[in-house]
Design brief:
The complex is a heterodimer of chains A (84) and B (601). Helix content of chain A is 76%, strand content 5%. The longest helix of chain A is centred in the last third of the chain and has 31 residues. Chain A is elongated, with a radius of gyration of 17 Å. The mean pLDDT of chain A is 92. Chain B is an all-alpha fold and 601 residues long. Chain B has two domains: 487 residues, Sodium/glucose cotransporter (Up-down Bundle); 70 residues, no CATH class. Helix content of chain B is 69%, strand content 1%. Chain B has a two-stranded antiparallel sheet with strand order 1-2. In chain B, helix 11 crosses helix 23 and helix 19 packs across helix 20. The longest helix of chain B has 51 residues. The chains are: A mainly alpha (84), B mainly alpha (601).
Amino acid sequence: MQHDSQGYWKATLGLLSRILVIWFACSFGAGILFADALNNVKLGGYPLGFWFAHQGSIYIFIALIFYYAKKMGDIDRQFDVEEK
Amino acid sequence: MDLQTTIYLVVGLSFSLYIGIAIWARAGSTSEFYAAGGAIGPKMNGMATAADWMSAASFISMAGLIANMGYGGGLFLMGWTGGYVLLAMLLAPYLRKFGKFTVPQFIGDRFYSKSASTLAVVCLLTASTTYIIGQMTGVGVAFSRFLNVSSDTGIYIGQAIVFLYAVFGGMKGITYTQVAQYIVLIFAYTIPAIFISLQLTGNPLPQLGLGGSFSGTDMTLLAKLDQVVSDLGFGKYTTTTAGSTLNMFVYTLSLMIGTAGLPHVIMRFFTVPSVKDARSSAGWALIFIAILYTTAPAVAAMAKLNLHATVNTAVKAGGDLYAPEASLKHADRPDWMKRWEKTGLLKFEDKNGDGRIQFYNDKTKNADAKAKMDAAGWKGNELTVNADIMVMANPEIALLPNWVIALVAAGGLAAALSTAAGLLMAISSAVSHDLVKGVFAPNISEKNELLTGKIAMAVAIVISGWLGLNPPGFAAGTVALAFGIAASSLFPAIMMGIFSKTMNKQGAMAGMLAGLLVTLFYVFAHKGIFFVKGTEFINSIGGANSFFGITPEAFGAVGALVNFIVAILVAKLTRPVPDHVRAMVEAVRIPRGSTTVTGAH
């Protein structure tokens, strides 16, 4: 079977951009650029902007990598290019 | 059992464990030597990557830095973890599919040029060597402080241990020892943190304790800390940024790109069996790293509060911080302060002659606090505390048992040794595989290549030990350079090699050179040409941090941008990529057909 390599790469890049948007939003957005505004919100004893910079971003990064690994597996199977 | 005997026992046990593993996991082939035979599962590889990545700096220094910087210290936390997202998605699976031993080999093949590969070797050697000097110095310091031997003896012992398991075990021996070292260092870091979190907040999880309330008061721990440090004239803990917001932004980005581009980290993803495993292994690595990295900010804030509470009774009891009797009498100071005073890392100078310790920021811009300090008759800050104490003295400050203190000693050594071994592996494979086999002696037999690799590693151990014994006086500044080089030269070249089919040899090389040179220029302008004192040319570029207020440590991201722009422009003007290279990129992008890593050129 001939692989649809363009379709595969397009799907991959789409997944990457979605993940990079979240990656950017939680660290550079919530943790740095909008930290001051978010500090008015409290998460338990944490000001929210401070929490994103010192804790939250790291948890989100982990979730993003596993989400990526799972979704890439799906895309591999969809385009029939997974490892055999 | 006294403290010193306990430390000898715990450290001795951990070392015999590492050596035992090394004997068990000897490398027999080049594939085992360079890539552990491609047989390490994603979780175990993640654990080894975590130990490889977390150096003496992460273990000993980071929490202290965060304690001093407050919110701004978050740039280390985000920067040194966010890079793994980039690594997992942009580099690791594709380099694993490519299926070769080293980073320069990928660059050489993808850009169909021996010169490109050699340029990558130069970048790799510079980044790894500057990084390893700090590790060896760290090994010496840790040994001398914990084992009561001289720093030089410490380095000799460290060299001997690394030699044993890195030279004979190669990547295979290193990987299994790193797994053991990870376990030692993570227990050493978290156990004291759990005790301290319980003491201060009643919550055993430091990550939750940091957001909890301060025991015995109705305030949250962070609000209490904010109040205490601002009353004492420091910046507010939860909002003080590292320089401008722009600098913090660029600094974080540089650390992320640098992390993803450091060869000794990338190389770890050649050891897993499949592309699928390379993707998830980065996630496992980040989980294991996060256990330490989410504990560190709690250690930082709690140690800072503990320290202030120790020298000023009004912190815990409430009431007037400036009252004369609130400051601790120097004669009544706890034993741990006496111990650390001997090392010179903690210093007391009674400036106003009242026999009590006043610990505050005497250069404060807070007029209200300043007036109260003057009214209280304070004549300047009297206590200086080296940031590295925060982690190492933490168990003593919290009055924890001797075995916990001994465990911290073993943990610090494990962190330094595991990173040193990973760096040595990167250096040795670049020399034996990319230079000797790739350039000088392409027909070398596997047996001789393995021997060359071992000799290269032994030489690298001797050189790095010698540099650790005679630190060139720039060890601290060079970490910025290692990250700057990885971010500005290696990361963009690898990424474009995968994500662009049109990036050609000329573009990639021009980009690497431009990114490297502009970063070196900015760093050298601040720190001296090749870090030689007196050769700084800071005035000719318009003063310190003249590029939009960006510090040299944060400049890697700018270098990477220059690399991308130059590479794209040059590629447009020069000859297009040959067809077989396009086909290669096509093949690297899909997982099907991946094989075990090999060294074939």
